[in-house]
Design a protein that fits this description.
Two copies of one chain form a homodimer. The first copy, chain A, has nine helices and eight strands. By secondary structure, chain A is of the alpha+beta class. Chain A folds into two domains: 143 residues, Jelly Rolls, CATH 2.60.120.10; 46 residues. A four-stranded antiparallel β-sheet of chain A has the order 1-8-3-6. In chain A, a hairpin with a 5-residue loop joins strand 4 and strand 5. Chains A and B meet through helix 3 and helix 5 of A and helix 3 and helix 5 of B. Chain B binds a DNA duplex through helix 9.
DNA sequence: CGTCTATTTGAATGTACTCAAAAGCGGTGG
DNA sequence: CCACCGCTTTTGAGTACATTCAAATAGACG
């Protein structure tokens, strides 16, 4: 259950076997069936979740009732509403399992404990934040400057696993384009090669 | 010089007079004339800068040579490339003063010192991060779901001071629309009231 | 197998863009 | 202090890209 998490962490910061063992006492395993929710709009996001297995999406619903996917997560990714998690305010996101999934949950308390026991965890956290910052800013840049086709090509080369596993209209939603447009783009790409 | 910074901080976390006094030894004042750069592409962002006076922009240049404004900052805002600051990697941003400006610089060293001396500073930092997270995600949401007109209306109601102070084509650049489109939108808004 | 949902295709529309040129504005030097 | 130059904003015309709405096809799940 903890193998993937441990691999994930030691890639970014070196922890002793003892320290890794300690982590087991802090993370809480949780299973989610397809279509179950980790978080619903209005709830406080008490956990950040590491995905050990499966696939999830975070989305919002706008005034006109449309869903907009904010984030996907598959194995070795983190998911949660960081804002709600940090501030304790209710979340505006829904987080739903797109496949049967296994998560490892970390709450603020657990996080504090880890930081007290394992100084190197700070570095790990910092790297996660950095990567998040980069991905978010790249996304803004893509939204601003790229055509629908470029957005899709960038996405599918960066996250090919997600393209495989997730319904096409959800990818369209993530990219901020209509399902019809994405369908036509894919057709055109297929033809031109 | 430190008045605004102190106000800014005590709004978010309560610090003792002694602690505030200590901050003076850590932040480094810096003046920038209009059109001077705080950071240029390829340099490492060694500081996060608190804007005591003035106005700046952070922008990138894409493959086709176009500028895209990532961020504005006026009094009481922070500016810098957080990724480069945290990771030590070279920045892809340029940060330029749009007016004569006064900054207070904080480097990683200084930040460490503060955290050691002033535990309450952690809370302050957390709140800054939260606000940053919210603003960034709102921006993504706006880019994805809003028309050019809605983007402008949202921006100008949220940051009216910036609309006042910054050339129109830079606002267009920030919103990811052309200057011509923004001009037409503004005309239309003016007519319809 | 049948139903429900996802994807594809078509036609018409609309929003924002490009390119080009005119008008407006501000800063600078004579 | 005014005239000029350069940059910003506005306006116009034509175009491209993506959207909407509608319907047909394909695929998944019970």
């Amino acid at each position: 259950m903890f193998d993937l998490l441990f691999q994930h962490i030691v890639k970014k910061a070196s922890l002793t076997p003892n320290e890794l063992e300690f982590l087991k006492t802090v993370f809480v395993p949780k299973k989610l069936r397809k279509r179950q929710y980790l978080l619903q709009e209005g709830e406080v996001s008490k956990y950040m979740a590491f995905v050990n297995k499966g696939c999830l999406r975070a989305y919002t619903i706008d005034e006109t009732g449309r869903e907009h996917i904010v984030l996907f997560a598959i194995e070795e990714w983190w998911i949660g509403d960081m804002y709600s998690y940090l501030s304790g305010e209710p979340s505006t996101y829904n987080i739903e399992a797109l496949e049967d999934s296994e998560l490892l949950l970390l709450d603020r308390n657990g996080q504090e404990k880890i930081l007290q026991h394992i100084p190197a965890f700070e570095k790990f956290q910092r790297i996660i934040l950095e990567n998040n910052y980069i991905a978010t800013h790249r996304r803004i840049n893509n939204m601003m400057t790229k055509t629908a086709e470029e957005k899709y090509l960038d996405f599918s080369s960066r996250y090919p696993q997600i393209v495989q596993r997730v319904p096409q209209h959800m990818i369209a939603s993530y990219l901020g384009i209509t399902p019809e447009t994405l369908s036509r783009i894919r057709k055109q790409i297929a033809e031109n090669k």
